[in-house]
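task queued by scheduler; priority normal; single chain, no ligands, no partner chains; default sampling; output format set to structure tokens
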Amino acid sequence: MALAAKSILVVDDDPMFRRYMTTWLGKVYRVFEAEDGEQALQLAQTAMPNLVLLDINMPGIDGYETCRSLKNSYLGDQTHVIIVSGSSSGPEQLRAFEAGADDYVIKPIDRFELLSRIRVHFRLLDALFRLSVSSNGEMPGDYNRFTSSATDPITATQEIAAFTLAKLADRAIRKPASTYYE
């Protein structure tokens, strides 16, 4: 068993970037979009996305606070957040992970790398779903969401994701690829 319909919330104040991501990812996933943190938090309550692609620098509620709020809500363990930012600064990345981000991608994005990372996160979410079902022998209340009781598997899957992402990054360094915002 796996997540039934995979959905992504794209949060960025740049309408061209949102349109690009929505068009591109919409071919495979259900995609929602928000132009700022406040709109993202409201939409997340109803859309319940499995994955959030989140910019840091936005008017109003910035990406750090949006991420922190998402992770502190009931969606926290059930929704992965990938920060998509123009900053390659180590302190900025650390701040994002401290806010609860599950991953960090630097703009300009390599769409093949981002798609690979999205697929990794969906595999991790699928694994958490299967673990939550097998640990208690019952289906969660909502088929498309995980139970919040699966805390130990989260740590294990984050370690797997870090290893997988390191391998992806190593490959990306060796091969040139097409990028957005060339």
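post-processing summary
- The helical segments are 15-25, 37-47, 63-72, 90-98, 111-136, 152-174.
- Confidence is low (pLDDT under 50) at residues 139-153, 174-182.
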